[in-house]
Structure formats: C-alpha cells, structure tokens
Amino acid sequence: MKHFVYAMAIVVLAAGCKKNSATNESTSSTSQSEAAALARASTTVQFSGYTWTIRNTGTAAEDPGPNVFNGSNAWVDANGRLHLKITKNTTTGKWNCAEIYSTQKFGYGTYQWQVEGAIGSFDKNIVLGLFNYSGNDQHDEMDIEFARWGNDAWPNLNYTVWPAANGQGPWNYTKNFSLNGTYTTHRFTRSANSVVFKSMGGFYNDDTNLFASATCSSPASSISTLSMPVHMNLWLYDGNAPSDGKEVEVIIHNFKYTAG
C-alpha cells in the first residue's frame, strides 16, 4: 500500500440510552462490554452484508505508515456500524491503527460510504482511507482519503486513481473543506473509461449537499479493469503520533456497492 493521497478523519460521537433502574443499567453495561470484547477478538467481521478481514500486524509496523495495525481497533457494534480507531498502547507507548478489507472483490460500479465524524478537522497526521486496491503497490487503486499528510497548510480531501500499467503516474484531485456537521457521504463510480468521485454533507444516496466532485478520464487506459477488494483504514502518516496527542475514532454507518 502506498503512503500518498487522500483525506479524512472522524471524531466519534457518543450516544446514551436511559435505563429504568440501576440494576438494568449495570446488566446492560456488562452485556455491551462483553459483546464489544467478543467483536474485537474476531479475525473477520460482518459489515453491510459482506465479510471483511481485520488486519492485525501484532507488534510489527507495516505500511502504510509504517504503523502497527491492531485487530482490536476495528469492530462492528450492535447497530451494525463499523468503528475504526487509533489508540495509544500505554504499555508499549506505541500508537495502534485500524484496517479492514473485504474478502469479496468488486469491479465496475458505484462504491459508497456514509461516515460519521469530524473529518474536516483531523489532526495533520491522521489519515482515513476508503478505497479499492489490487495489492500491487502504486497500481490498480481508486482512493478517497482525508488527510493533510503532516502539513496543516495542505488540503484535506484527496481523490486518487493509481494507474493500471507502468509508465503512467497517478491522477489526483485535492480540495480543502470544512464541515458544519459530522455526517458525510462519499462515493466513486468506476467504469471502463472513467472514475467519478463525489462527497456530500449528510447521508444521501443522491448528490444533495454536494461539496466536492471530480472525474478521472484521461487517459482511460490508466484506469484498472481488475476486480479488487475494498479497504477501509485509519492510520498515521509516516507513523507519526497525532500532533495533538489525541486518540481518534471514526464510524462508518454503511458501505454500499452497486454493480454497473
């Protein structure tokens, strides 16, 4: 995996439920904690109708970054929402990141994510990636990333298409954005001749509140024809700790693929 373009990060929101009694509250809290622990112990997870592998590098740091990817930092909650989290291991002092990737491969069509979090105000070292990828580094990849790549002055939204063949560089679009809310929708549509990227404020299946759009179509031969897994990751640029020292959590409410 490469260490280049894309931008986005999200600060998790907390929601509480009112309990009828102290006993019920305690029981509910215990069961939720147990469920969360079991979810985080999984090597695969079911999300949005697909099976995903949870990446776990143990104590080793690997690309992108390099970073340590901890299997406990990605899980699906009782509402079916995917959580990706960057945490600091207080024992080792190392920061741990999160990634999942689909067991199924996807080809031409529309890929859409609905994301909760303050992605417009990520720390400069945080990267949120939503993409498909063949595994051939710097080739066969379409990316939406939220990141400033370690520089507060750089734009925080990145769309990228990595070429299908050697001898061609990546296509890239960047834009700086800020948000009033914490819900956003992001999608790209792959065809044989183009990749069309769009980002909207709020959760929509159309172009309502569109705040960014770009199309890669030149040259068409640079667009991969392969069916590839989908990845979602939350990581640290160059493996650097968040400059504000804060942990980060992003919630993906759903992923939707429509063949086309």
Number of strands: 16
Shape: globular
CATH architecture: Sandwich
Based on secondary structure, the structural category is: mainly beta
Structural account:
The protein has 260 residues and is mainly beta. 7% of the residues lie in helices and 40% in strands. The chain is built from one helix and 16 strands. The protein has one helix spanning 22-40; strands at 44-47, 50-54, 68-69, 74-76, 82-88, 95-102, 109-116, 126-133, 141-146, 157-162, 171-175, 183-190, 195-201, 210-216, 230-236, 248-259. It is globular and about 50 Å long.
Summary tags:
260 residues; mainly beta; Jelly Rolls; 16 strands; globular; disordered N terminus
How would you sum up this structure in a few lines?
The protein has 260 residues and is mainly β. The chain has one helix at 22-40, and strands at 44-47, 50-54, 68-69, 74-76, 82-88, 95-102, 109-116, 126-133, 141-146, 157-162, 171-175, 183-190, 195-201, 210-216, 230-236, 248-259.
Secondary structure elements and pairings:
Layout (H helix, E strand, L loop, with lengths): L21 H19 L3 E4 L2 E5 L13 E2 L4 E3 L5 E7 L6 E8 L6 E8 L9 E8 L7 E6 L10 E6 L8 E5 L7 E8 L4 E7 L8 E7 L13 E7 L11 E12 L1
Parallel strand pairs: 3-6
Antiparallel strand pairs: 1-2, 2-6, 4-5, 5-6, 5-16, 6-15, 7-12, 7-16, 8-9, 8-15, 9-10, 10-11, 12-13, 13-14
